[in-house]
Amino acid sequence: MSEILIIDDDLHIGNLLEETLTAEGYSVSRAYSGTEAMLILSNNKPDLILLDLMLPGLSGEELLPQIRDIPVIVVSAKIDPSNKVELLLGGAADYVTKPFDMQELLARITVQLRNRSSFPDRNILTYGEISLDTDTHIVTVESTDIHLTRTEFAILKLLMQNPDQVVAKLTILDKISLDTPDCTESSLKIHISNLRKKLRSVNDKDYIEAVWGIGFKMRKS
After folding, report:
1. Judging by beta carbons within 10 Å of its beta carbon (0-12, 13-18, 19+), is residue 143 exposed, middle or buried?
2. Which pLDDT score is estimated for 122?
């Protein structure tokens, strides 16, 4: 059963969508603001999102860039073509203008879910609040983008692939050498120090620990 998250503060439209989608066999969850949606998405990953733009607090335009790997159909009363184009280029899978035809919306939902099932999931590594997408090279901590250098990304990827192991310094240098020829034994400590600072900047948690005389590992929470 596919799960659809409705993000809309209009109770009438939200109730209508929930009733119709439930009757069609979908599991439905709801959020009434962008802030509430972020809280839900931090603990749950629906198969598709119906997103209104005019939300209290965090708007739909502000929320959209923070939604990853979930198709989003924008359902909005805004009809400006330039606004539609901007949102579609910014990550929305589709755009439906209010008032909408329910059968058309259902068809668009079916298409997006079918398209999603046609592609394998991205290779995403997670450790606590850290998410690392090996395809797009996007790293987030608590949904906040962390901008890493090529070397920092390679180090973090290797450590997250071996979360319960101490990875020796020479092993790190050997494994990342093809991607990061600039990383040497003398500079490795600096790269890891910078990486730890960037990860710690979001919530002040230290995710990487040094094991004296051996190497580095992901820190257990």
Report:
1. middle
2. 58
135: CB partners within 8 A, 6+ apart: 122, 123
Give whole-number Cα distances, 214 to 166, 168, 169, 170, in Å: 8, 5, 7, 9
Encoded amino acid at 129, one letter: E
- In angstroms, the Cα distances linking 220 to 16, 147, 167 are 45, 23, 15
Question: What pTM was estimated for this model as a whole?
Answer: 0.56
158/172 Cα distance (integer angstroms) = 7
* CATH number 3.40.50.2300 given to 3-117: yes
Separation CA 90–CA 14 (nearest Å): 24
Among the listed residues 166, 184, 164, 165, the one whose alpha carbon sits nearest the alpha carbon of residue 174: 184
Where does the chain have alpha helices with state H?
A: 11-23, 34-41, 60-63, 81-89, 102-117, 150-161, 169-176, 188-203
Eight-state DSSP code of residue 142: T
Architecture in CATH of 124-218? Orthogonal Bundle (1.10)
As given in the structure block, the two tokens for residue 141 are 């901590």
DSSP-derived 3-state class of residue 95:
strand
Look up tokens 């965090």; give the residue. Answer: 58
CA distance 55 to 217: 42
Statement: residue 9 has pLDDT above 80: yes
Instruction: Give the Cα separation of 38 and 92 in Å (integer).
Output: 16
